Amino acid sequence: MGYADPVIGETMLIRRLFTAAALAAVLLPILFLGSAWWWASVTLIFLLAASWEWQRLIKPMPFQLSRVMTWPRGVVVMAVIGGLTLYGLFSNITPAYFDLFLYCAVSLFWIVAAIPLMRYQQVHRLSLWVVLFLLLAAWWAVIAARAIGIGYLLSIIFLVIAADSFAYFVGRAIGRHKLAPTISPGKTIEGVLGGAVGVLLTAAIFIQYVPWDNFFRLSWQKLGYFACLPWLTLLFFSVVGDLFESALKRAVNVKDSSQLLPGHGGVLDRIDALLPTLPLAMLITYFLNQL
């Protein structure tokens, strides 16, 4: 994003870099050196922040649960769910196929419900319980991906980053045809195609040069050239997640979900594309391992 005043632009860049450095200083040591319990606990804190942000966005809108359930209750519910999940996860009492059911249900929501909700401008009417379910699924997927391997989790995250970055730069350079003008005027079809190129390049790098087990290599080993299908499906889901949050913010006329991350907006602004992508990636992983 450009700024007319160069001083404002420079200040915003400094804030973004400082926030990114602070997040990296917290998350990277825990990701690479911490135990699974520490990783799950710290990422739960970010999910609690995201649930608070989402409740703030839907609270002003006229539907039943937002009148009854204030944001502190929403965060408490998410904390209780997270605590019980942590206990079940590390006590080995999680019901069989719970994660598979969770990934299937959430992926079905993003396929069946998300696009109609955006099309008919009803995103802001989404029940808070559904929101908590979506966040829980993404959090569970983060834990599961890290349990497979650090490289596996990073490969999924880099897929989303590559898709978003290439879409942004290609869209700015040659974007002409709007993808969803009423939701996010800046997104273009050309940008999405550029994102697809970015995903394929990222896949090639991970397959050829990254020594860790990762999502791209597993897909390639199991499917060969058909591995492009799950990669591009995840690209599509990342776009849906991005547009979904944009539609929600547009409905309540706000620019960012919060200011928890100076220069970056809120937690939701940073993880919106990951919310549908992570659970679907783990669902695909399950089926790939059956081949």
From TrEMBL:
Coiled coil ranges: none
Major localization listed first in the record, in broad terms: membrane
GO CC annotation terms, alphabetical: plasma membrane
Enzyme Commission code(s) on record: 2.7.7.41
Pathway the protein takes part in: Phospholipid metabolism; CDP-diacylglycerol biosynthesis; CDP-diacylglycerol from sn-glycerol 3-phosphate: step 3/3; Lipid metabolism
Localisation: Cell membrane
Entry keywords, A to Z: Cell membrane, Lipid biosynthesis, Lipid metabolism, Membrane, Nucleotidyltransferase, Phospholipid biosynthesis, Phospholipid metabolism, Transferase, Transmembrane, Transmembrane helix
Membrane topology summary: Multi-pass membrane protein
Enzyme class per UniProt: transferase
Domain of life according to the entry: Bacteria
Transmembrane segments: 12-30, 36-54, 75-94, 100-119, 126-143, 149-170, 191-211, 223-244
Pfam families linked to this entry: CTP_transf_1
Catalysed reactions, semicolon-separated: a 1,2-diacyl-sn-glycero-3-phosphate + CTP + H(+) = a CDP-1,2-diacyl-sn-glycerol + diphosphate
A single GO molecular function term of this UniProt record: phosphatidate cytidylyltransferase activity
Any GO BP annotation: CDP-diacylglycerol biosynthetic process
InterPro entries: PC_trans
Family: Belongs to the CDS family.
Name this polypeptide is given: Phosphatidate cytidylyltransferase
